[in-house]
Amino acid sequence: MGWKGESRRHSLSRKGIKTAQSKGCVKKSKGLGKVTSPNQKATITDNSILINGEIKYNELADHDLKRTFISKEEYHHPDGFDYVIGIEIIDSYYATGDEDLKDKYWVVLNLIPKMTGENRADLIKDMPPNPDETSIYNEAMDYGYSIKLRDELAHKDELDDHIKELALEGNLVPSLSGFYLDKAQNRMGDTGWDRLDEWGVVGAN
User: Fold this and answer.
1) Sign of the C-alpha dihedral, residues 43, 170, 159, 5?
2) For the residues of 25-89, what is the DSSP string, one character each?
3) How does pLDDT run across 30-40, given as a tens digit for each residue?
4) pTM check: above 0.85
5) Which of 115, 126, 163, 174 could bridge 120 with an S-S bond, Cβ 3.0-4.6 Å?
6) What does DSSP assign to residue 6?
7) What does the domain layout of the chain look like in residue ranges?
8) What's the pLDDT band for 116 if we cut at 50, 70, 90?
9) From CA 164, how far away is CA 50, in angstroms rounded?
10) Which residues, in sequence order, are bridge partners of residue 88?
Protein backbone atom coordinates (compact mmCIF):
# COMPACT_ATOMS: atom_id res chain seq x y z
CA MET A 1 0.00 0.00 0.00
CA GLY A 2 1.38 3.40 -0.92
CA TRP A 3 0.98 6.52 1.17
CA LYS A 4 1.07 9.45 -1.22
CA GLY A 5 1.75 13.05 -0.27
CA GLU A 6 0.81 15.04 2.83
CA SER A 7 -2.74 15.95 3.77
CA ARG A 8 -4.34 17.93 6.58
CA ARG A 9 -4.84 16.17 9.89
CA HIS A 10 -8.24 14.56 10.31
CA SER A 11 -10.60 14.45 13.25
CA LEU A 12 -9.14 11.30 14.79
CA SER A 13 -10.15 12.18 18.33
CA ARG A 14 -13.81 12.21 17.23
CA LYS A 15 -13.33 8.57 16.24
CA GLY A 16 -11.95 7.57 19.63
CA ILE A 17 -8.38 7.36 18.31
CA LYS A 18 -5.51 8.76 20.36
CA THR A 19 -3.52 11.50 18.64
CA ALA A 20 -0.01 12.77 19.30
CA GLN A 21 -1.48 15.36 21.67
CA SER A 22 -3.35 12.68 23.59
CA LYS A 23 -1.35 9.47 23.67
CA GLY A 24 -2.53 6.44 25.54
CA CYS A 25 -3.04 2.72 25.43
CA VAL A 26 -4.56 1.67 22.12
CA LYS A 27 -7.34 -0.82 22.69
CA LYS A 28 -8.91 -3.02 20.06
CA SER A 29 -12.64 -2.58 19.68
CA LYS A 30 -14.33 -5.98 19.72
CA GLY A 31 -17.33 -4.83 17.70
CA LEU A 32 -19.38 -7.88 16.86
CA GLY A 33 -16.41 -10.18 16.53
CA LYS A 34 -15.94 -11.74 13.13
CA VAL A 35 -19.24 -11.08 11.41
CA THR A 36 -18.70 -12.48 7.93
CA SER A 37 -20.18 -15.03 5.60
CA PRO A 38 -18.13 -18.16 4.84
CA ASN A 39 -19.31 -17.92 1.23
CA GLN A 40 -17.80 -14.47 0.66
CA LYS A 41 -14.25 -13.62 -0.37
CA ALA A 42 -12.68 -10.16 -0.40
CA THR A 43 -9.91 -9.02 -2.76
CA ILE A 44 -7.95 -5.74 -2.57
CA THR A 45 -6.83 -4.00 -5.77
CA ASP A 46 -4.95 -0.73 -6.30
CA ASN A 47 -8.14 1.34 -6.07
CA SER A 48 -10.99 -0.86 -4.88
CA ILE A 49 -12.11 -3.78 -2.73
CA LEU A 50 -14.01 -6.59 -4.40
CA ILE A 51 -16.28 -9.17 -2.77
CA ASN A 52 -16.78 -12.34 -4.79
CA GLY A 53 -15.33 -10.54 -7.80
CA GLU A 54 -17.70 -7.54 -7.62
CA ILE A 55 -16.48 -4.04 -6.73
CA LYS A 56 -18.02 -3.10 -3.38
CA TYR A 57 -15.72 -0.28 -2.19
CA ASN A 58 -13.90 2.41 -4.15
CA GLU A 59 -10.74 4.15 -2.96
CA LEU A 60 -11.30 7.83 -2.21
CA ALA A 61 -7.96 8.87 -0.69
CA ASP A 62 -4.42 7.56 -0.26
CA HIS A 63 -1.85 9.73 1.51
CA ASP A 64 0.65 9.68 4.37
CA LEU A 65 -1.91 9.61 7.16
CA LYS A 66 -4.50 7.25 5.80
CA ARG A 67 -6.14 5.36 2.98
CA THR A 68 -9.93 5.52 2.60
CA PHE A 69 -12.50 3.32 0.87
CA ILE A 70 -16.24 4.03 0.59
CA SER A 71 -18.94 1.57 -0.43
CA LYS A 72 -19.99 1.78 -4.05
CA GLU A 73 -23.63 1.46 -3.00
CA GLU A 74 -25.61 4.00 -0.98
CA TYR A 75 -28.05 2.40 1.45
CA HIS A 76 -31.38 3.65 2.78
CA HIS A 77 -32.29 3.02 6.40
CA PRO A 78 -35.99 2.40 7.26
CA ASP A 79 -35.81 5.29 9.75
CA GLY A 80 -35.43 7.73 6.92
CA PHE A 81 -31.77 8.46 6.19
CA ASP A 82 -29.23 7.38 3.60
CA TYR A 83 -25.70 6.20 4.36
CA VAL A 84 -22.61 4.48 3.02
CA ILE A 85 -20.00 2.22 4.61
CA GLY A 86 -16.47 3.59 4.95
CA ILE A 87 -13.16 1.89 5.70
CA GLU A 88 -10.18 3.90 6.97
CA ILE A 89 -6.63 2.53 7.17
CA ILE A 90 -4.70 4.94 9.39
CA ASP A 91 -0.94 4.97 9.88
CA SER A 92 -0.88 4.95 13.69
CA TYR A 93 2.75 6.06 14.00
CA TYR A 94 2.25 8.95 11.58
CA ALA A 95 -0.89 9.98 13.49
CA THR A 96 0.58 9.80 17.00
CA GLY A 97 4.37 9.84 16.84
CA ASP A 98 4.35 6.91 19.26
CA GLU A 99 7.41 4.71 18.64
CA ASP A 100 5.49 1.65 19.86
CA LEU A 101 3.10 2.05 16.94
CA LYS A 102 5.64 1.91 14.11
CA ASP A 103 4.47 -0.33 11.24
CA LYS A 104 0.99 -0.56 12.79
CA TYR A 105 -2.29 0.66 11.36
CA TRP A 106 -5.78 1.26 12.66
CA VAL A 107 -8.38 -0.28 10.38
CA VAL A 108 -11.74 1.36 11.06
CA LEU A 109 -15.19 0.38 9.78
CA ASN A 110 -17.65 3.31 9.71
CA LEU A 111 -21.27 4.02 8.93
CA ILE A 112 -21.40 7.48 7.30
CA PRO A 113 -24.84 9.13 7.21
CA LYS A 114 -25.82 11.60 4.50
CA MET A 115 -25.57 14.97 6.21
CA THR A 116 -28.36 17.51 5.89
CA GLY A 117 -29.01 21.17 6.62
CA GLU A 118 -26.27 23.35 8.12
CA ASN A 119 -23.88 20.44 8.67
CA ARG A 120 -24.00 19.58 4.99
CA ALA A 121 -23.51 23.23 4.06
CA ASP A 122 -20.44 23.41 6.30
CA LEU A 123 -18.97 20.31 4.64
CA ILE A 124 -19.25 21.55 1.08
CA LYS A 125 -18.39 25.22 1.59
CA ASP A 126 -14.65 24.59 1.15
CA MET A 127 -15.02 21.90 -1.52
CA PRO A 128 -14.80 22.49 -5.28
CA PRO A 129 -18.09 23.57 -6.90
CA ASN A 130 -20.75 20.89 -7.41
CA PRO A 131 -19.01 18.05 -5.52
CA ASP A 132 -20.33 14.55 -6.14
CA GLU A 133 -22.11 12.74 -3.32
CA THR A 134 -19.27 10.26 -2.73
CA SER A 135 -16.81 13.11 -2.16
CA ILE A 136 -19.23 14.68 0.34
CA TYR A 137 -19.45 11.36 2.21
CA ASN A 138 -15.66 11.21 2.30
CA GLU A 139 -15.47 14.76 3.64
CA ALA A 140 -18.05 13.87 6.31
CA MET A 141 -15.96 10.93 7.48
CA ASP A 142 -12.83 13.11 7.59
CA TYR A 143 -14.65 15.59 9.84
CA GLY A 144 -15.88 12.92 12.24
CA TYR A 145 -19.47 12.62 11.00
CA SER A 146 -19.29 8.84 11.06
CA ILE A 147 -20.30 6.08 13.43
CA LYS A 148 -17.50 3.69 14.27
CA LEU A 149 -18.72 0.12 13.93
CA ARG A 150 -15.44 -1.67 14.57
CA ASP A 151 -11.72 -0.91 14.67
CA GLU A 152 -8.60 -3.03 14.85
CA LEU A 153 -4.89 -2.37 15.28
CA ALA A 154 -2.96 -4.35 12.68
CA HIS A 155 0.74 -4.86 11.96
CA LYS A 156 1.66 -4.08 8.36
CA ASP A 157 2.34 -7.77 7.65
CA GLU A 158 -1.27 -8.63 8.55
CA LEU A 159 -2.88 -5.45 7.26
CA ASP A 160 -4.52 -6.85 4.14
CA ASP A 161 -6.21 -9.62 6.13
CA HIS A 162 -7.73 -7.07 8.52
CA ILE A 163 -8.92 -4.86 5.66
CA LYS A 164 -10.58 -7.82 3.97
CA GLU A 165 -12.24 -8.92 7.20
CA LEU A 166 -13.75 -5.49 7.84
CA ALA A 167 -14.81 -5.18 4.20
CA LEU A 168 -16.75 -8.43 4.51
CA GLU A 169 -18.33 -7.28 7.75
CA GLY A 170 -19.24 -3.95 6.17
CA ASN A 171 -21.04 -5.79 3.41
CA LEU A 172 -23.39 -7.24 6.05
CA VAL A 173 -24.01 -4.00 7.97
CA PRO A 174 -27.22 -3.02 6.09
CA SER A 175 -28.96 -6.10 7.46
CA LEU A 176 -27.61 -5.45 10.99
CA SER A 177 -27.61 -1.65 11.10
CA GLY A 178 -30.08 -1.40 13.98
CA PHE A 179 -27.87 -3.59 16.16
CA TYR A 180 -24.79 -1.51 15.37
CA LEU A 181 -26.57 1.81 16.00
CA ASP A 182 -27.79 0.58 19.40
CA LYS A 183 -24.21 0.06 20.62
CA ALA A 184 -22.40 2.64 22.75
CA GLN A 185 -20.00 4.96 20.93
CA ASN A 186 -18.20 6.32 23.98
CA ARG A 187 -17.74 5.86 27.73
CA MET A 188 -20.81 8.01 28.40
CA GLY A 189 -22.96 5.40 26.70
CA ASP A 190 -24.05 7.53 23.75
CA THR A 191 -25.28 5.27 20.95
CA GLY A 192 -25.13 5.64 17.21
CA TRP A 193 -28.70 6.92 17.36
CA ASP A 194 -27.60 9.67 19.75
CA ARG A 195 -24.91 10.74 17.29
CA LEU A 196 -27.39 10.84 14.41
CA ASP A 197 -29.76 12.93 16.51
CA GLU A 198 -26.93 15.29 17.50
CA TRP A 199 -26.03 15.81 13.84
CA GLY A 200 -29.66 16.45 12.83
CA VAL A 201 -29.78 13.58 10.36
CA VAL A 202 -33.31 13.30 8.94
CA GLY A 203 -35.25 10.42 10.48
CA ALA A 204 -32.87 9.75 13.39
CA ASN A 205 -34.45 8.38 16.58
Assistant:
1) positive
2) ------BTBS---TT--EEE-SSEEEETTEEEEEEEEESSSEEEEEESS-EEETTTEEEEEEEEE
3) 444 455 566 88
4) no
5) 115
6) -
7) 37-198
8) confident
9) 9
10) 68, 108
